[in-house]
Amino acid sequence: MTVPTFPPGFLWGASASAFQTEGAFDADGKGLSGWDAFAAQPGRIKDGTDTTRGTGFHERYREDVALLAGLGADAFRFSISWPRVVPGGSGSLNPAGLDFYDRLVDELCAHGITPAPTLYHWDTPLPLDEAGGWLNRDTAYRFAEYAGMVAERLADRVPMWITINEPAEVTMLGYALGEHAPGRTLLFDALPAAHHQLLAHGLAVRALRAAGAGNIGISLSHSPVWTAGDTDEDRAGAELYDTLTNWLFADPVLTGRYPDEGFAALMPGPVEDDLKIISVPLDWYGVNYYNPTLVGAPRPEALDSFSGYSMPSGLPFGIREIEGYDTTDFGWPVVPQGLAETLGQLRDRFGDRLPPVYITENGCAVDEPVADGRRIAFLEGHLEALRTAIDAGVDVRGYFTWSLTDNVEWTEGASKRFGLVHIDYETLRRTPKESYAWYRDVIRAQRTGGPSLTPGEHAPG
Ligand code: FCB
């Protein structure tokens, strides 16, 4: 397989997030996040990783920026820790916390790398979580205030912004199933957390623009839902799951409507007015893609563990295992064409309402420390599928792989490795993997318009 050529100006990047990398969980006046508290509960982090150290990014960010520069990356998507900037969740700013991002942005700019910060990648300030987190409408307003304060300081140098990362995962894993912070098990009563994150997004777009920031998007996870079986119950289960995980978030943002009147009726507050805020036009739309999902009618033999997360019984759909594909070391099926499928769905569903797309996350867990040929194969397949989607008329402007370095994979701890760069968690030493050299050569070949690469052609890191 070769890596196709992408349109001129296509942006090549890598992604990361604050909780997963920074460490320094209480340095320089940082407040605790809901994830700090959740991870400290016994048994929450499956492999017992001490999440307070991350990858040491807060100390070693210059090393990681040098690694990005070595890749020839155009852009770096990182996240800003809300409790580092506003330790109490509301009220005064922690200047020392914001200084860190100021330094990071300067370092990136000095290397010609576009800083693309995400304002919320799941680390809610603990005091807000304790007051109900995203179940509480007030959290949305506090988020917009924080977004405005960050933009006041950084908008002069940051040309690309992301409000919120994957509100679907926060809602499902954090509020419905209790597998992530804040560990609530509300099932369908978790829906207000979805609405308030969407409201927070819309309010933050306004606040960012008011503070002079432009080029704003959101990162939503998308998984094409495949129907298991061919009964009406199977189709209903798959459709419900598709609505809940894909369109409950994309539709309000891009069309100003919820996809389903029943779910809309469960949302709190002045929903119609909120939807006007939520659907404020965006400059671009971020897609995180990992794999499709196979769903049918609820059945006793439905997967009780999906992507490592347990699913309770009694849900109105049943998730099944996708067979016949390679799997990553997370057990996720490797289905590159699912990326083209998901982008085609977005184009068909939203037409002109879909702004230019960036892939803001795509990658895989591979355990091999350095010889990660399976990651190269994964990324090659997905870039091929991405090019197919572009040829089919989807306006995709850039690709951020997840992730620059190995990092703390939430409740999986350090045991799932998504990085182009290996982290030794004892020493925090960084070692580029084979995929790092490969990605560097892909980016270089795009620049020179040189021949596409074939596996094995790249020089060692
Ligand atoms: C996404 C998250 C990201 C990372 C990848 C593997 O859902 O946004 O932080 O954990 O999955």
UniProtKB/TrEMBL annotation:
It is an enzyme of class 3 (hydrolase). It comes from the Bacteria. InterPro entries: GH, GH_1_N_CS, Glyco_hydro_1, Glyco_hydro_1_beta-glucosidase. GO terms for molecular function: beta-glucosidase activity. Keywords: Carbohydrate metabolism, Cellulose degradation, Glycosidase, Hydrolase, Polysaccharide degradation. Its EC number is 3.2.1.21. It catalyses: Hydrolysis of terminal, non-reducing beta-D-glucosyl residues with release of beta-D-glucose. SUPFAM superfamilies: (Trans)glycosidases. Belongs to the glycosyl hydrolase 1 family. This is Beta-glucosidase.
